[in-house]
Amino acid sequence: MTETPKTAPGAALSGLRVLDMTRILAGPWATQILADMGAEVIKIERPGVGDDTRSWGPPNVTDQQGRDRGAAYFHSANRSKKSVTVDMVRPEGQRVLKALAGRCDVVIENFKVGGLAKYGLDYASIEAIKPDIVYCSITGFGQTGPYANRAGYDFLIQAMGGLMSVTGQADGTPGAEPIKVGVALTDVLTGLYAVIGILSALRHRDATGEGQHIDMSLLDVQVATLANQAMNFLATGTSPGRLGNAHPSIVPYQAFAASDGHVILAVGNDGQFARFCEAAGAPGLATDERFATNPGRVRHRDVLIPILQGLMSGRSMDDWITTLNAANVPVGPINSIERVFADPHVRFRGLQTYPTTPDGDALVGVGSPLKLSRTPAVAPLAAPDLGADTGAVLSRLLDPSTFDLEALMADGTIGDTRAKPKAGGTP
């Protein structure tokens, strides 16, 4: 058996190998970040089925030849990975995965608590094979506690973790009800925290030789990221309510209707408020004792906001954006996602990318926001077709005297989907 260099030499995480037994979003988001920074991420999928999100379409992504490359949802969280299909229900599949884990630095999974123990793929089993393994488990409620055995999904956790209680129009206004955030934010935040935990554990491993188990809970993350809203409650004993687009502690910091659309006015300090008032032709507001300081503006928001709305409605969005930016007052439009990707600054920052397939076809994708001066994110590769890397990865990492890959492929324990997708079909 020969070892070939891992992906992305010179990248920040070059030399790091990750066994990714996750699906949906939180786990794949974490491993995608690791892949962006140069780690070799081996995504384990079920033969013939794969990650659930492969079928979460339309919309689907198409390549330059007009061929269907699968659900856009799957592509959002799986770029630059390698897909290996293994049936973990079969004893031989479990043996394959244990051998792969022994060749990896990190194992990450998001099965139910205890779900992998029956396959010998839980932390205790993998640690016995590789004591310095960093093993990250992502669940809805964590490995311990009264809810540990419950299934947890982002929408449910946004509700249980308090986020929806502070999101939506205020009671007594039209459309007032708790609202979820428009993206699966709890999943994304959990993926980010998982990466922080993994990198911290790797730092400890490199210093001591010890691996460890990381217990990531969506509910823990959601409660922790309530941020100022959590502290507002702990400081007062009163639960914050919904304020629509307004801020509980800063005024004015919300959406206002201009003559032709809505803009966000984000005044963060008294100096900005004074400059806004001058630019808006109402300098006296900044010297009014009710409004001169932010605490005063918060206390008198019911008086101030209608006054400001009257001013804002008299000019166009572009007029306000030009005028207030010139006055160094934070302001901006509420963009559709189409407008986001047409924005000149977003384009300049490279947030739309064109990841390539192994065949050299360019797809479309979103870029990594990580911009390191010496070890930037690697050039993105397209999310892999199901099982496309099975043969290449296993022949490189498994001992041929111990594993007969042809036999395993013949009996369906592993799979290698190398056929190119057909026009209008699925990968």
Automatic annotation (TrEMBL):
The keyword Metal-binding does not apply. InterPro entries: CoA-transferase_III_domain (IPR050483), CoA-Trfase_fam_III (IPR003673), CoA-Trfase_III_dom3_sf (IPR044855), CoA-Trfase_III_dom_1_sf (IPR023606). Pfam families: CoA_transf_3 (PF02515). It comes from the Bacteria. The keyword Transferase applies. Keywords: Transferase. GO terms for molecular function: CoA-transferase activity. PANTHER family: SUCCINATE--HYDROXYMETHYLGLUTARATE COA-TRANSFERASE. This is Crotonobetainyl-CoA:carnitine CoA-transferase CaiB.
